[in-house]
Amino acid sequence: MEAKNNKKTIWAWCMFDWANQSYNMVITSTIFPAYYVAVTANKKTGDVVTFFGHKFVNTVLSNFVLGISYLVVVAILPILTSIADYKGNKRAYLQFFTWLGALSCAGLFFFKPDSGLEIPMTCFGLACIGYCGGFVFYNSYLPQIATEDQLDNVSAKGFIYGYVGSLVMQILCFIVVLSPKTFGITSDDLPSRISFVMVFVWWMGFSIIPFRLLPKGQPNAGKHNYNVFTGGFKELSKVFKKVRTMPLLRRFLSSFFFYSVGVQTIMLVAAQFAAKELNMPQDTLITIILVIQVVGVIGAWLTSILSAKYGNIKTLVGLVSIWTVLCLSVYFIANTPQFFIAATIVGAVMGGVQSISRSTYSKYLPPNIPDTASFFSFYDVTEKSSIVVGLLCFASVEAWTHEMRDAALALDCFFVVGLMLMISLLFAEKKAKKTPTAPHPEVAIV
Fold this sequence. Notes:
This protein is mostly helical. The chain has one domain: Growth Hormone, Chain: A, CATH 1.20.1250.20. The chain contains 15 helices and 2 strands. A hairpin with a 2-residue loop joins strand 1 and strand 2. Helix 1 packs antiparallel against helix 8 and helix 3 runs parallel beside helix 5.
């Protein structure tokens, strides 16, 4: 097995984040949401669209599609991680999902103002599945390539690479969208559609680096005595049973689930809110998101410093507290300057809470486990399940009240629960540290 903390391997791992965050930036955060809202707006029907013969509010439809996509990911990941664990081909699944996501982004090029929504929304959903599916295998590499004392730094480094990569990609798309005549483009919709193809090229191009340099994975066929198609669920069941015997990890994952409902959903619907509720022009929205990315790089770096000084759990308590106030403030945002202030603060805590959550989970894992795929499958199922709950909750409240602001208030309830659970974990950690017989690694990360 390759030695941990290898600089070249860590660089290759970070480059996957550099590559795939182009999807997160362009498709979920800026150009596609603004393009989708503009294309689906109709003077006769308002924001109501037709999808396979059924009528939906446009943003409700896109959030339902995303929610169902994440639900598919939750359903298939246990099977895939079981097969990857059995055959030791973790990297092959990383490649498969990357191709699925990138090609689906390229398919969005054919989403024109006069086309139906069935094919574009299918591509939108498949792109999400590709992006999320790859991440479970990407995350599972973390404890394999870094020692425990380097997990926070390496995790933060991955997010920083992702922010910088997506920032560069967004600037390139920004040039095309705002200066189409420079490239001889006269069609109003073509610049946005070209940016979807640019995501495909960027995502696949830079993914070649981790595909070539990351370890393939070690087969563990000897430990399986059941069908690999059902083995993943049995592995998750085994992990769940282990989690139940680890009170601190159990509290952490419970808190993680609830605050992830809010964090992930806000990140996915923020651009829709700006375009629909504030009528924000696409160029202004892109500029604000670019600022968020720059602040996000600084935030992820500062979070790693704070966690080293104050501990992971205290840092998470602070971050989730900020998120709780931010989500509440969404209800009162009425103009672009207010959105810009809130978005800047979001940028500062966005990468930090994701990075420190991932590394905290890594520290809680039992030491010397032969393969991390099943444990990170459990982590990713927890996270993706929270996104399903968040998106479906947000979409349902908006469909019921026709107000995205009311949906934001509903999300804030999840933040409150997550914060209370994290505070209880903080006190439990302190108590555990005073107990000399407490087993590793259930202590020492306060």
